[in-house]
Amino acid sequence: MPPRKVLFLCTGNSCRSQMAEGWLRHYARDRAEVFSAGTRPAGLNPKAVTVMREAGIDISGQRSKHVDEVAKEDFLFVITVCDAAREQCPVFPGALYQLHWSFDDPAGATGSDEEKLVVFRRVRDEIAEQVRTFAQREGFNPR
Predict the structure, then answer these.
(1) Which of 123, 36, 30, 18 is nearest to 77 (CA)?
(2) What pTM, to 2 d.p., does this model score?
(3) Residue 127 zone, left/alpha/beta (φ > 0; ψ -120 to 50; rest)
(4) Which pLDDT does position 61 carry in this prediction?
(5) Domain containing 133 — which CATH number?
């Protein structure tokens, strides 16, 4: 069976959708073809890279993309990970499932660098659990 295509959408495609992409790649391996994009891409956030690396996942090779770059792909799942993306999400007529998971935006965290990293870690862990559950339920066989 060919890998099933999954798209994670966020506004900036800088943190949440990038982390979700990294987690599903980790859990699903070659059983899913995973993408992320944003309605207003803002570049890959270095703190997202840092906290994912702490969890043993390297997302430094990923890049922030506009949703138009992936619009012609035939996705099985389109998953929005923020409320704004849900409202602005284009229609993907080939997507069998459109899901919405709402996570806080760690890029909006305030305080010292360490206080911001605490927020990034919390959101990373929340995304990890949601993606792990999704991967298990959909038969992507997480580790």
Answers:
(1) 36
(2) 0.93
(3) alpha
(4) 97
(5) 3.40.50.2300
* C-alpha–C-alpha distance, residues 109 and 51, integer Å: 14
8 A C-beta contact, residue 67 and residue 8: no
* 89 given a catalytic annotation: yes
Total domain count for the chain? 1
31: tokens are 């059983």
Mean pLDDT of the 86-102 span: 79
Of 89, 121, 126, 130, catalytic:
89
Q: For 33-55, write each residue's pLDDT tens digit.
A: 999 999 899 999 999 999 999 99
Is 82 one of the annotated active-site residues of the chain? yes
Q: Is 15 a catalytic residue?
A: no
Asked if residues 99 and 27 have their Cβ atoms less than 8 Å apart, the reply is: no
Residue 142 lies in a domain: no
Neighbours of 113 (CB within 10 A): 10
